[in-house]
Amino acid sequence: MAENSNEILLAENHEAEHAETHESVDAHEAVDSHTETAHDAEHEAGSENVFQELYKQMGDHHGFYWGTYHIADLPMIIYDDGFHFYSSPAAMEAEGKFVMDHHTHKPVKASTLHSEHPEPPALDLSITNLIVFEWIALFILGILFIKAGSSVKKNAGRAPKGIANVLEVMFIYVRDEMIRPNMPLHVADRLLPYFISLFFFILVMNLTGLIPGGHTATGTIGVTCGLAITAFIVINWTAIRESGIGAWFKHLLGGAPIGLAPIMIPIEILSLFIKPFALTIRLFANMSAGHIVLFSLLGLLFYFGSYIVAVPLVGFSVFIYLLELLVAFIQAYVFTMLTAIFVGLAIGDHAHEEHA
After folding, report:
1. Mean per-residue pLDDT, 115-142
2. Model confidence over 333-353: pLDDT tens digits?
3. pLDDT tens readout for residues 150-174
4. Distances from the Cα of 229 to the Cα of 262, 286, 352, angstroms
């Protein structure tokens, strides 16, 4: 009996120890599982923050940024019951009439900040980061053309060299291959300064965005819309000047009989605005798409955090970067070429005119 009792006690102790060990293992596994889950959640949250931070860098800012580095504050110019000028967003908020909405990162009236729909000022004319990059493009163009002009004067009668030679080749190509073939010769020569400025301005803005830390001004719809509005004015002003206001209105028929006027006139009026709209979206979408792909690839590097994945991603990023370099030239060419074509179409039939 004693031996049986001892065996029973030993068996019970063994089962109790086994149960405690099993519970300890389960608890340890639960802790590990919770730790891994928390780590995964933290990793996903960190990756999401990286994606969001990279995507935000594509947007506009009320400060001058190079990459993620804040260089300087920019002036705030607001029109609402008169003009209001501030040296920086902080100075604007210090006055208390307008504050920055942290959701939209745009100025709103301080009295409506905590309402469901904060009210923006009547007009925001503030200097932003992308405006500064437009000024940088203008500054670069000014330096290049002043230097080229000085070189040509010094070497009068001889073939240009260096940057003057490069600019001359591009200048002649724009003139002879893009502008003169699409409109009368006298119109092409009169509008040549506009088209040359348009081509080089878009090109330099595109290239500036490819410098590490730079921002692409043409990657925002406001800049491309401004360029398209300018093109719209040039197209229709040139058509009225060359053909006359009567011919311009007649052109709204599209060459159709007068009986089709109720159909043709609305279509032609729509086409007047569709052309600049197409110019706006084409340049904006093409310049934004490549940058989104590059930012996505950079985001994947942070997401996976692996050297094995980094090798193909970096190689593919370099390929996309080189493709973006090509796209920078192509989009400057396309915008300028389409504007020249639209000018020629707006003037009408000029087959009798002399072409280069």
Report:
1. 90
2. 999 999 999 999 888 744 444
3. 888 888 778 778 888 899 999 999 9
4. 27, 19, 30
Q: Strand 123-124 vs strand 76-79: parallel, antiparallel, or unpaired?
A: antiparallel
What is the 3-state secondary structure of the chain?
CHHHHHHHHHHHHHHHHHHHHHHHHHHHHHHHHHHHHHHHHHHHHHHHHHHHHHHHCCCCCCEEEECCEEEEECCEEEECCCEEEECCHHHHHHHCCEEEECCCCEEEEHHHCCCCCCCCCCEECCCCHHHHHHHHHHHHHHHHHHHHHHHHHHCCCCCCCCHHHHHHHHHHHHHHHHHHHHCCHHHHHHHHHHHHHHHHHHHHHHHHCCCCCCCCHHHCHHHHHHHHHHHHHHHHHHHHHHHCHHHHHHHHHCCCCHHHHHHHHHHHHHHHHHHHHHHHHHHHHHHHHHHHHHHHHHHHHHHHCCHHHHHHHHHHHHHHHHHHHHHHHHHHHHHHHHHHHHHHHHHCCCCCCCCC
Read off the pTM.
0.79
Asked whether residue 217 carries a pLDDT value surpassing 70, the answer given is yes
| pLDDT-derived band at 124, boundaries 50, 70, 90 | confident
pLDDT category of residue 257 using cuts at 50, 70 and 90? confident
Return d(Cα 243, Cα 232) in angstroms, integer: 16
